[in-house]
Known about the structure:
Order of helices and strands: HHHEEHHHHHHH
Structural class: mainly alpha
Helix content: 55-70%
CATH class of the largest domain: Mainly Alpha
Strand order of the largest sheet: 1-2
Mean pLDDT: 89
Low-confidence stretches: 1-6
Amino acid sequence: MSSADAQPIKLLMIEKSDDLKTHQWVYQLLRNNLLCGRIAPGIALTIRGLAQILDVSPMPVREALHRLACEGAVEVKNNRRVIVPSMTPEKFRELCDLRILLETHAAEGALPYIKEADIEVLEVIDGAIDQAIEADDVDHISLHNQAFHRCLYQVNPFQISVPLIESLWLQLGPFSRIAISKLEKVYLVDRHVEALEALRQRNLFGLRRAIEADIRDGIASINSVEGIDNYFRGVA
């Protein structure tokens, strides 16, 4: 077993509500941890080990990991270990290009359906991001940022792109976390403020520009991390 395999996992826990079945709770919990990058690439997970951590039977863990493997977030190995896939520069560029393509499309599709109440909700979420930044809460910087984008895109009642976008977030989560945790300043420019202003003005070009700039800022942050090539090679 490698040193990476031996690292302990500290999961971000979420409360299990009465209306959630166990397998749904396990899936949401593991998915949240992947979205915010808590589970690093190359660290081996096992169904039995996760079941012990979560105090559940192996079955809901197995179901959750199968769903996450279908979303490209984890790989199931022949020895039944599960890992977050390693990243390559080529895969990273492809995922980022797809994010820009899909998310600008989703934002444009949402604009005709935006109401003032939707903008107010987005402002609250953006405020939560600012609070997470002030608190140096790496987990919720990512999760609230994703919530902002998800909330915007889902305003379109006919959208079908959010599951595709979330699959990209799942694959990029560990590398976004690297950047957030290593940079002294997370956002030099709050692109969400620009997006909110574009929404108020019903400015399609301004909204597209703000969403694309937000994604490109994140990409630049990751690329600026010293030794990022080592993370792509899986040796950091």
